[in-house]
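Tokens as discussed.
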């Protein structure tokens, strides 16, 4: 059973959207996964482009799969492209190795899940994810 509740996931999504509106970001899509990689909640803003679910999910899934935020995964992909290509194959193409996938931890450091945001630049996607996680009272680990 997941420790991540739907109410918490919805808070994360609402806050990420509010951060996007506050900073003038393009329409966002936000996927919230529990520690086991199961989707808890997903929403996309009106006018978000095609494949935003797959990208947001892939960022969160990649963070969980590798145990690090996708900022660190991005660095790894640049330093070890053959490894990342092989890993993507093993994962069925579900990893998106760019910033915007952020692990969530509780106050004791225990992994709760991950958030993936897609729609603007990777840095802005990551900032929206962090804002949502922190609003839910959790600790963001972007890598």
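Sequence:
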């Amino acid at each position: 059973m997941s420790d991540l509740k739907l109410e918490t996931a919805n808070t994360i999504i609402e806050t990420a959207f509010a951060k996007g509106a506050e900073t003038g970001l393009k329409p966002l899509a936000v996927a919230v996964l529990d520690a086991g990689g199961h989707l808890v909640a997903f929403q996309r803003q009106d006018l978000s482009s095609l494949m935003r679910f797959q990208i947001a999910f892939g960022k969160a899934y990649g963070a969980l799969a590798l145990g690090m935020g996708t900022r660190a995964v991005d660095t790894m992909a640049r330093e070890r492209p053959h490894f990342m290509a092989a890993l993507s194959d093993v994962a069925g193409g579900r990893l998106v190795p760019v910033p915007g996938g952020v692990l969530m931890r509780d106050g004791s450091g225990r992994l709760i899940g991950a958030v993936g945001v897609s729609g603007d630049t990777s840095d802005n996607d990551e900032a929206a994810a962090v804002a949502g996680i922190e609003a839910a009272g959790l600790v963001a680990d972007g890598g």
